[in-house]
Structures are given as C-alpha cells and as structure tokens.
Amino acid sequence: MSRQEKSRASNSKRRTRIQQENETRILEAALETFSANGFRGTTIDQIADAAGMSKPNVLYYFSNKEEMHRVLLDQLLDTWLDPLRNIDADGDPLNEILQYVQRKLEISRKHPRESRLFANEVLQGAPRIEDMIKGALKNLVDEKAATIQGWIDEKKIADCDPHHLIFSIWATTQHYADFDVQICAVLGKKNASNRFDTASEFLGKLFTNGLRVS
Amino acid sequence: MSRQEKSRASNSKRRTRIQQENETRILEAALETFSANGFRGTTIDQIADAAGMSKPNVLYYFSNKEEMHRVLLDQLLDTWLDPLRNIDADGDPLNEILQYVQRKLEISRKHPRESRLFANEVLQGAPRIEDMIKGALKNLVDEKAATIQGWIDEKKIADCDPHHLIFSIWATTQHYADFDVQICAVLGKKNASNRFDTASEFLGKLFTNGLRVS
DNA sequence: ATCATTGTTGACCAACTGGTCAAGATTTTT
DNA sequence: AAAAATCTTGACCAGTTGGTCAACAATGAT
Asked: What is the pTM of this model?
C-alpha cells in the first residue's frame, strides 16, 4: 500500500497476479510478432490477438507500442551481454573463446526471436539502443578485447585483431538465428534438423584451427 | 514499333529516355528507404520524396509498392550469386575460398544497402524469395559444397562441413554491412574508419588458419 | 503546326492503425 | 455483502497510407 507508489515504473513489485500474467502474455505475444515482422510491421491488434485479448486491454498494460518494444529490448540486452562477460582472463584462452562461441550459439538455438528482434533493430540503425551500444557494449567489448590481446601477446593464441574476432563470433553464431529460414532452405529438410549440432562442430573446428598459434 | 509489344514485362527495351531515367531514380530511392526502414516501414511518399517526384508519378512507373520491392530483390539476387559461382573447382582450394571471402566482403563494402535489403527479407521469413532460395540458391550451394568436399577428400583443406563453411563466410562478410552501425559504435570513430581493411585482414587470417590441413 | 502519346500531379478515397473513452464486468478488500 | 479497486472491451476518432482518377503539361511523330 505504501511501497508500491514509490517505484515510478511498474517494474519492482508486480501488484496483482492478473497484471503479472497479462504483462507476461503480452510481452510473449509482442516478441513473437515484433521479431517476425519488425516494429513497423507489427500492429497492436496482432499483438492483442496473439495474446488473446482486446487491443484496449493491451494498452491498459502498456501505454503504447513503443513501450512494449522498449521493454523487450531492455530485457534482451540485459541477458545479451552475459556470455561475453563470462570470458575469464584467467581461464585457458582457446577454451574461453570456444566456450563463448558455444554459449552464443546456444542463445541462437534457444532464443532465435530475441536474436531477430535485435537484428531488426540494428539493421534499421539501432535508433533505440544507440546509447547502450556506444556505452555499455563498447566498454565491455573493449575490456574483453584487451584480455584477448593479452593472450595474443603471451602467444597463447594466434595474432589477430581481437575486436574483429568478437565480431566474427557474433556474426557466425547469430547467423543461425537470424537467417534460419535461408539455412533450412539450403540444407534441405533432412540436413536442417540437426543444423545446430553440425554448426557447433564446424565453428568449434574453425575457431580452434583459426586461432592456433602457428 | 513491333518489337516492344512482344515483351510482356517492361524489361527488355526501355521505350523512352524519360522512362529509363525515372525508373532508375525511383529504384535508387526505393533501395535507400527499403533498406533503411524495411518494407512496411517504407511509405510510397518517402520514396517519391527521395526520388524528387510526386506519389502518383511513382505509381505511374510501378503499379504498387510491392513491385518496386520485387524488382529490387530480383536485381539483387541476380548479382548475389555471382561470387559463389566464381569458385573454381580447378583453382587452388585455399585461394579460391579466400577470394570468395574477399569478394563477399567487397560487396558488403560497396553495396551495404542491397545487403540490408536482403537481410530484412530473410529476417522476416523470406516470403518473397522463398522459391529462389530453395531452388537456384540451394542448387548452387550444393554444387559448390560438393567442390569443397572434393578438396577435403584430397586433403587440400581441413576436414569440415562445406555447407557450414559457406554459411560462416556469408555470416562474417555480410555482418559488416548489416550490423555496420554496431560495428562503428563498438570500434569508435577512429578505428571504424578503416574497418573494412582490418576486417579483410582478420578474415583472411581466420579462414587461412581455420582451413589449413592439420 | 497538329495531334497522339507519354508524363505529371492535386485532390480524393477507402482501409488501416495507434490510441482514447466511457461503461460495464470481475476481483479484491473491508 | 458491499464498496473500492482493478480489469476488459465495443465503439469511436484522428492521422496515415496505399492507391485511383481526372485534368493538365510536355514530348515526339507526322
């Protein structure tokens, strides 16, 4: 009664069971449609349909379309950086990098919609996440690039540009979520079924060989 | 006078100078806006503005928004497969692959809008190019994958899945067009200026090492 | 010069879409 | 049980957008 008014946003303590349930349902529906159709390609009616409720009810929980999108991106970015954060400067260099590849690939496998939401956003110039990309993301990447450069200086892995190494890991792993349709089409039904396993094996080899000191 | 009616589409002989000029201007404008805002995010008014003419005039040359998009995708796909076609089974294996990487990266550098148009399309499930992807593209990839497999059997390059090798080349090279905003933001102004050159060097090393027979 | 063809656009329309609102239904609190 | 708070939605509105049309302008063939 007294604590709830304190929090400006409706983020800290969900007040009612219904609110919690409906907000979850709406966000799930919004993720589905945003990731499949982009921001402008999505109508609130679509989200409402997918969530099984009326449009005004959706707008009762989120004041506008933008807000749903913003919340989804916020949630996404929060977890997006996790695998990168996990790179341990004190671990075995090659193993750390391979772990990172596998973790990112696992995200593509388990959360393709989030990956596509992110891709959509960046593709259109990242208008809503510009600050985060230039701030938190850049800082973290710079830090981890320094770690990798340290490994290179110690001759633990091959000499290469650490930033571009990170980019190539992002590119190859996210590709399996963002371009899934193309990959399945090219592989054909039979080979597509275990595409993530074969991808995992391939990327493991590529980066293992690619980073071995020569 | 007799030849023109023969061609159903207005594709073979452009009739007038004005038609040719305006269609080019419109397509240029459409590419700009489609690639930046996606199909649904683009309005015909935007295209008309960018082309410096009125909306009805745009629709005088292209019967609807869909048609402009379709023509752009057709043009794109025509040239999209070229670098892959150029892989020569009789060339030096590693060199052929590295050439392919460089050609694809060059396309990202020179034609980022086309790359983003394609990415947008695939991201949304490739509804308009499904046939092409499952047909011409799949066939060509299968053929080149067989070539690569031949090289692997001859121990000319490391053993790996040829399809996924091609995917990883697509991913890493197109990433520099599709995620350019992110890359520039992370690299910072100074390092971003020559990002394609550093990328070229990195990818060269990665695939050279990655494919060396061990 | 004249006339048919081609090119151009302001005005308009119907459908869609983001968002509001008032009125009623449901749930929670007392 | 009844009052308060929360939840739900049909009806509605204003702005946008894809596309049409009639009228007018420019161009090219004769």
From this structure: 0.93
